[in-house]
Amino acid sequence: MAAYPHLLLVLLLLLLLPSKPKATSSALLGISYGRVGNNLPPAISVPQILASLGVGRVRLYDADATTVRAFANTGIELVVGVPDECLAAVSTPAGAADWVRSNIQPALPATKIALLTVGNEVLTGANSSSLSRYLLPAMQCLHDAIAQAGLGKQVAVTTAHNLGVLATSYPPSSAYFRKDLLPVLCPILDFHARAGSPFLVNAYPYFAYAGDPAGVELDYALLQPGYAGVAEPGTGLHYNNMLGAQVDAMYHAIAAANSAAARAVEVWVSETGWPSANETGATPQNAARYNGNVMRLVAQGKGTPLRPAVPLRVYMFALFNENMKPGPTSERNYGLFKPDGTPAYELSYRLPQDNTTSSSGGGGGIYGTGVYNGHGDGSGGGGYYSISAAGKAAMGLVDMVDTCSCDSMCGCPADGIVTEQIKWCLDGSLWLLMVSEFR
């Protein structure tokens, strides 16, 4: 009986502890706000447009100060990009601290920032050979700078990949990462597991359909609710839409590369969309169906067939048509809105008007005036069925061993893959990245 008061005290303290916010079905959807255009509305008008969609989360591709300030005191939560051209500068502790001091701290606490994305599709982009070596050090240094600024519980650090990091994605259970990327991806997965940040993927069923319209069912790619679906031969799981299959392919690849990290790392879709003009399958009707179906799927609060208990988190691409983006016409026609703020088409579904956030945060920035948020044209392996062209290209490390003395596909990292700030060691059954003062 003497211990009873102590039990009451413990229970009271547990009740007073801050709980981890639970994501609701209406708060899992965001949208990408690219600004590669010379006719876009001012940033200050964007929160009102977002309110008409019921979207409370936005992904930016840089930390432009004017754009970030436009979201101050709106309750909208931001993902802020560290542009590719900044990676070398922020891959040192001093450079990362300066970037955080200049770009993140000034706007706190008015603007909510939940995530920094370090580069976009760095490992498969045009400048991968020169930038890949900076990616992990930049992520680590920014993570440390955020922690040292006292923001570690508010702002997480990650990067966004496209499906071109996969050697194969079909069937999902057979997916695995390209061998040449494992020396970088394996320690990145360790980083995510330790830091508690999500693994982001830009996933586009459109590219799979456009690349093989005769072999890919349009309704499957469009996520149409009535589609019968596809049975996965390896697991028996049933996929009624391609986006879920693409996400699960990434989960399987993570597990194949780093089984320990796979238990802790969550996959988010950092981009997905469907163009509305001038390419195979790119019509306003199909774009309306796809984006409306994405909204419906996310609003249900369900996960994928492989991870049914983990609600799917998605950022649609994109808010506006951007008239200065390079590439085919479709690249300039991903927007839900025209530059004048009118809808590019009528969506087949509308979110409930409670897709908002409630946690506090902050942000700011000086870099960039738009930053090309290129997500490829399908050649980067965006399709569920196809092996990426990039995955077929030899990049000097294809002859790595597939396995080490463990169930990981990481193999033994080759000399010169990482900077002198990072050292590798074999800890039990897993290659781990050891960085000083890892928080």
Structure, explained:
The protein is an alpha/beta fold and 439 residues long. The protein is built from 13 helices and 14 strands. It has helices at 4-16, 46-53, 65-69, 87-90, 93-103, 128-148, 182-195, 205-211, 218-221, 242-257, 259-262, 284-299, 389-392, and strands spanning 29-32, 57-59, 77-82, 112-120, 156-162, 166-168, 176-177, 199-202, 230-231, 238-239, 267-272, 314-317, 423-427, 430-434. The radius of gyration is 21 Å and the shape is globular. Mean pLDDT is 80; it is low at 1-26, 358-372 and 376-439.
Major beta sheet, strand line-up: 1-2-3-4-5-8-11-12
Order of helices and strands: HEHEHEHHEHEEEHEHHEEHHEHEHEE
Determine the mean pLDDT. Answer: 80
Characterize the quaternary organization of these chains. single chain
Question: Uncertain runs with pLDDT below 50, 5 residues or more?
Answer: 1-26, 358-372, 376-439
- Overall shape: it is globular
DSSP helix fraction: 25-40%
Strand-helix topology:
Layout: H1 4-16, E1 29-32, H2 46-53, E2 57-59, H3 65-69, E3 77-82, H4 87-90, H5 93-103, E4 112-120, H6 128-148, E5 156-162, E6 166-168, E7 176-177, H7 182-195, E8 199-202, H8 205-211, H9 218-221, E9 230-231, E10 238-239, H10 242-257, H11 259-262, E11 267-272, H12 284-299, E12 314-317, H13 389-392, E13 423-427, E14 430-434
Parallel strand pairs: 1-2, 1-12, 2-3, 3-4, 4-5, 5-8, 8-11, 11-12
Antiparallel strand pairs: 6-7, 9-10, 13-14
